User: What shape does this take?
Amino acid sequence: MEFEAFLETFKDQAIGYGPHFQIPNEVYFKMLKKCKDKRVICTINHAVTLHSALLQKSGLYFILLNQPLVKKQKWVIGDTLIIHLAPDDSTYGMPISEEFQEVLASDPEGSDWFHQLTPGKQRSLLHVINKIKSSQLKIERSFVIMEHLKRQQGKLDYQILNQDIKAFNEKMSF
Assistant: This one.
């Protein structure tokens, strides 16, 4: 489904923060019927594609955009965006790196703990890995995450995970 939308921010901070675009009601409800878990693949201006969620709050239907993306694309509030939405039928609702797939395949216990997490927590961990550019660092971060999940018996604690990552980085620095 394709439509035009304006890049905007929320006037009422109680609704939310940050750049977003509104989804027309009829588009939102048509997409809702087609999508599992409100996950969509959003293409903006026929150039930028991202995995997103259909969001709703206070009668508004929208998709949030992150500030670095907006800045990189040199979009400003008020810009008209051409939006194309399609159902996201991917396993995790976002891309999974080849490196993380290999670590999951090589660590059955860690993989079991990962797959017991909620889809949102799985996506959060995938985001932690996907934002890294270096293949070697993706592999290392993946192993740290798997070890964290095994040690915590599947309980994801972001504070402890950050400490684990920091400890690993310190151990690896020369």
About this structure: The longest strand covers residues 80-87. The mean pLDDT is 91. Strands lie at 2-6, 20-22, 39-44, 48-53, 55-57, 60-64, 80-87.
